[in-house]
Specification:
Layout lengths: L2 E8 L3 H12 L4 E5 L12 E2 L1 H10 L2 H7 L1 E3 L1 E6 L2 E7 L10 E3 L2 H14 L4 E3 L1 E9 L2 E8 L4 E11 L6 H6 L4 E4 L2 E11 L8 E6 L2 E9 L2 E10 L12 H11 L5 E11 L2 E4 L4 E2 L2 E3 L5 E2 L7 H20 L5 H30 L4 H14 L3 H11 L37 E5 L3 H9 L4 E5 L6 E3 L5 E4 L3 H11 L8
Parallel strand pairs: 1-2, 1-11, 2-8, 5-14, 11-20, 22-23
Antiparallel strand pairs: 3-7, 4-7, 5-6, 9-10, 10-11, 12-18, 13-16, 13-17, 14-15, 15-16, 18-21, 19-20, 22-24, 24-25
Length: 489
């Protein structure tokens, strides 16, 4: 084999780009391939939520996203011009209390530029056609645009290659779930009218179905609407025309909204599917290769990018010899599969509530939503869920013991800044008290003085691993994670 890398990443969408950039930041030798000739040209995924923005900050490119995107305060649910509910995310406990509206084409551009600054690049028109693996690594077969084949060796393979993932198919993993029996349309258009606003996602519930507006840039919106149930076995509908979109706006919207300048018109169906495990030996799955679900909530891309951030620091520690395979890499599937289940369940529930057809049930739904969502605890819970700030890993093998701050949880005052080493951070009111411990494990942990009640060990992704006054427990935790190169003595 002419080429051997530490990691081969298949798929250069937002998840593959995030994965590769994070690994490169940690000093890992990565090759990123994609069979497409060019990046995504359409808007596709439109929102970057608060938790993902925090991870982009840690990665070192959050500012570029802020400069390119547009802030939205949250969302509103309507029936005609009547506002049923408001979801305001401006009160969430995050440096980014908003939805950042940005087209996926821009997200990919920004991540590719970030990767370029880290010395990486995307190899296009290079397709993964197969692979085998053993205890020593992965042997992958690639096909280039001119038809030539290449065999590459890698220590690890990561499939970020989408819903039709070659890595998943070759692993033989079942993609369990269903296709919803309804047709939908998508339109990327410009909207004009008195109820058109660019700082809020708007969802209109109508007796016929749902209509939603997602702002992309000032005046430009994604419009999504369902077209009713699909007979079993029926072929997909043709792509809509601008006239079709206008008819739906007139019937289901607040009135006086005009669509024009269509950029993208498409028909689609919603799939809800997920694998049981995100790891198969030396191969991993992330993003749509592992889970796909309803676009309700706009969490698909965000969840995939967070998959990448979760795996990258763990894999980097193992490759660098500072972390152990078992506890670190097995925890990736444990943690992120549980999150995938949660997102799948929440997005599915939102979709099914929007698609209720019975007029009596619709009236009850509207009444309940308009009253219950006014309650402050409900508002807070909804905001934390949609921004993905509620994601935690209390059941993870990496979350140990109890304390004032629950292990596995994310705390705003403990979101330690990034860096180019995938180390855990040990916080203590007096740095000198823990300097020796950090000096013993320089590749695994760094010491930081902070106003905490008791020593706290924080993961590179900002989640609490352990909080305790027992230094023996801290040493035992590090010893359990440590690889052969972690300790100096």
């Amino acid at each position: 084999m002419a080429d051997r890398r530490q990691v081969l990443v298949a798929g250069a969408g937002p998840v593959g780009l995030m994965m590769t950039a994070e690994l490169r930041r940690y000093g890992i030798d990565v090759r990123l391939i994609d069979k497409a000739a060019q990046p995504t040209q359409t808007s596709k995924a439109l929102v970057v939520w608060s938790r993902t923005m925090e991870l982009l900050d840690r990665a070192g490119c959050g500012g570029a996203f802020l400069a390119a995107g547009m802030k939205a305060r949250g969302g509103g649910m309507f029936s005609g011009r009547e506002r049923l509910a408001t979801l305001d995310v401006r009160a969430v406990d995050s440096p980014h209390p908003y939805a950042l509206m940005i087209a996926q084409s821009e997200t990919e551009r920004l991540l590719a530029e970030h990767l370029d600054r880290l010395g990486g690049r995307v190899e296009r028109e290079v397709e993964l056609t197969g692979f085998s693996q053993d205890e020593s690594g992965v042997q992958a077969t690639l096909r280039h645009a001119d038809g030539t084949a290449e065999t590459i060796g890698a220590d690890w393979l990561i499939g970020c290659d989408g819903a039709h993932s070659t890595v998943r198919h070759r692993l033989g993993f079942a993609f369990e779930g269903e296709t919803l029996e309804s047709d939908w349309i998508l339109a990327d258009v410009h909207l004009h009218g008195p109820d058109v606003v660019s700082d809020e996602i708007r969802i209109y519930w109508h007796a016929d179905g749902v209509l939603a507006f997602f702002p992309i840039t000032p005046g430009r919106f994604r419009v999504i609407a369902d077209l009713g149930e699909t007979p079993p076995g029926a072929a997909g509908r043709p792509d809509p025309t601008l006239a079709d979109v206008q008819a739906l706006l007139d019937r289901r919207g607040p009135g006086e909204i005009v669509a024009g300048d269509a950029i993208w018109l498409s028909a689609f169906r919603i799939n809800e599917r997920k694998v049981a495990s995100y790891r198969g030996g030396r191969a991993f799955l992330a993003g749509d290769a592992a889970h796909i679900h309803s676009p309700a909530g706009g969490q698909g891309m965000n969840t995939g990018m967070q998959d990448a951030a979760n795996l990258a620091w763990k894999l980097a520690l193992v490759i660098r010899g500072e972390g152990r395979d078992g506890p670190l890499l097995d925890s990736y599937s444990d943690e992120r599969s549980a999150v995938g289940d949660l997102v799948l369940r929440n997005a599915g529930a939102m979709t099914r509530v929007a698609l209720l057809r019975n007029p009596i049930v619709q009236s009850i739904r509207n009444f309940v939503v308009s009253h219950v969502t006014r309650l402050s605890p409900v508002q807070q819970r909804m905001a934390e869920q949609i921004t993905e700030l509620d994601i935690a890993y209390p059941g993870s093998p990496l979350s140990v013991g109890g304390g004032h701050r629950m292990p596995g949880s994310l705390q705003a005052d403990l979101r330690i800044g990034g860096g180019n080493l995938p180390r855990l951070t040990l916080l203590h009111p007096h740095r000198h008290a823990i300097a020796g411990l950090a000096a013993d494990w320089p590749g695994l942990v760094q010491a930081l003085e902070a106003a905490v009640e008791r020593p706290t060990l924080v993961r590179p992704d900002g989640y609490i691993a352990l909080e305790t006054e027992d230094f023996a427990a801290i040493t035992g935790y590090l010893a359990a994670l440590a690889g052969p190169g972690a300790r100096t003595k």
